[in-house]
Amino acid sequence: MRVFWGLSALLMLIAGMVRPADSQAAPDTWTLLISGDTQGYLSPCGCTKPMIGGIRRRAALVRQLTVPGRTVVLEAGRASGGLGRQDVLKTETLAQLWQALGVDAVALSGAEARLGSAQLAQVQRLSGDRMTTLAVEPGGDVTWERWIERGPFLIGSLDPAAAQAATLLGGTPVPEATAIAALVAEAEALEKAPILMMDGNAEAARATARAWPKLALIIYRSDEQAAADPLKEGQTWLVSPGPKGKAVLQLNFREGEWLRYQALPLGPEIEDDPEAAALFRQYVDQVREEQLLEQVPRGAAAGLAGSDACMSCHNDAYNTWHASAHAKALRTLEQEHQDRDPDCVGCHVVGLDRADGFNPPERVTGLDAVGCESCHGGGKAHVTAPFENPMPKVGKESCMTCHVPDHSPTFDYESYWEKIKH
Fold it and tell me: 3-class SS at 307?
């Protein structure tokens, strides 16, 4: 899979930008574009290149691939994974993007449903009423379509978690079999190809395809990056855009058959879409204005002293650190205007979650970066009495709290240690 993504990104880089497969297609060919499962990742995240994903690249690619009058755009839901204020802002930002891009249908997932009816009504309004689900009959303050008809397709979504949240939505849950049967029957009556966006893995998608062989396409969830080829169960294609909004799927459809499939990673060769960039800047400005970083819960003091306290006794190690990218970690966020983003700052400073850790107004030297104490732990007692309070030995495990696969997919401890060993 990594070979595919690397090759795909390279080819896109050489070409400057992927070109719509439909540009030379027959006039009765439809393009289907699928993305989503963003999980709050509005921007590429990480400290190893190339970083993949982000709504600015997604919007640019969707616009590039859109064939006027012959394109249907779908979003697989799960805009954000939480219920906090920042999660709400992310979901609202995505909703505005859906409307700006003219997304045709958005799967209403449990992630959105759990926000509650009032907030969901706001998201639905911002999206231009694009969210849909078969799992819940509408009721109360929020309305949505059971399915959406676009071009040759009838599109529905199904997430058991949305049904579980029916009481929050003021609606009535619909049994899964009843919901799918209704979608298939309506599609048959309209002579449309039924598409189901479902919250389930590939195995669940296969079981659904076997039970409902008239489904033309099932879009499922996967924690793996988008596959190079679609899965197939009978005449049903099974596809997933993968997690965290890192890819856009492009499918071609003509005369009741799928013709072509491409999984296109959102790499750095794709230039940011200006409208999406403005929405993202609006989001980070709001995070800053609401001072969400200052509201991060803090635990007990960790006995932090700041990296400058290490310099007098550990001059060589201090100089190695000072010359490293770690010492400039917060500055990189400042350049991206994300230095007040709680999602990012914790891995760019020391002790954001501690009472004596990094505090934006104070900017204690050595706490406003990935400092000595990011790896070695609090050093205040050691500074006061070094022989009585020796610092513990640390190794690879101290790196892995931030250098996780999502943020550092190519992280290799041995090669990275060579850059900072001391």
Answer: helix
